[in-house]
Design a protein that fits this description.
The chain has one domain: Up-down Bundle (Formate dehydrogenase/DMSO reductase fold). Helix content is 69%, strand content 2%. It is globular, with a radius of gyration of 23 Å.
Length: 407
Amino acid sequence: MEYRFETIEGRSPGFYGLLAVLVLLILPGVVSTYLMYRHGIYLSGMTNRVPWGLQIIMAVYYIGLSAGSLVISSLYGIFGRAEYKPFARIAAYLALLLLIGALLSILTDLGRLGNLQSSFSHFNFLSMLSINPFLYNMYIVICAVYLWAMLKEHDLWVRRLALVAVLWAILVHSGTGAIFGFVPRELYQSPLLPPSFIAAALSSGTALMILVILALFRLTGRALDDLLVIKLGGLLGVFVIVVMYFLFVENAYRLYMAESREAGYFFLFGGINAVLFWGGLIGLGSIVPAVLLFHPQTGRSIRWIVVASALVVAGVLCERYLIVIPGETHPPELFRDWEIRDSPWEEGVVHYVISYHEVFQAIGVAALVAFLFILGLKWMPLAPTEARVSPRPAELGEGSPDGAPAA
């Protein structure tokens, strides 16, 4: 079936009202970023012991959403699944914007934007923090060229670039996971972290695409077959199970090994960590969506698929928090079996409280991504006029074997 792509009209008062609301959400983030640039990032909740805060959480989160979104696009580009072609352009464009949002989150975390030059003027092959900027920049270029090939309908290049884009997305998110997984600290170091990052990226990216696709088609009055959404819901359910497997193995290992057991108990049963892990990530973010997606009735209900998708998106955000923050607030075991009696650093477990400046920055970046996405829908032919599993029988014509209308 051939699909026709077009821009959205974007002339209604509601359209311009939505853009105005997004601009109002962006402005506080710009102001907070300016204040941190002028006065320093002490205005945030970060400290010497907690140098990565909400913006790094959001950066890791956006990178995962981007990689997961691109996989949905690849279902058509690599595997030739024509029923997913209507979503391929939207997914690729969203993947591009989410990676830009991740880089903006990292920039707002720097405080002094002049520090950015060190990422490009100094390169260390043994540092994942040095390798990843190259991976991120190339990812943006690849996504942009891949999207261009789809807009120009160069099918051969679409297939080639789809494979390159997905492989690079896996490399990007593996590199992001390695930033934490290769650090020799009890709650970071883990060879499972890169593939675990990818699994969570696939689940959150697929969930986000379901929400975006349904919102776009409903708001613009386009025809969308429920079966397509149900298929994506089934794929999401599989990804959720894979995420739960990685979480089980990683945390079972922490509790099994004597050197990380105390840190493991802190991670799983320590205050806010326990609430976010058991309540946010495992309960609401994994078990409930899995039950909804695999149940014969709710798994075929668009409404419940939407609920499950929203819970997965929120659950993976909890997972990103749990990857970044507990590893900083828990004291590292620098000298095993030794007691540090005097140190210029704060010892023991510390606390991190998100400041309102960080919240404004995070909301501002999210609003900017949404703003650019909506403008892209208006300026580029990204949205199909319809999305169907197969042509309707009535449209094929009767009495003609090749599907042409009967005379």
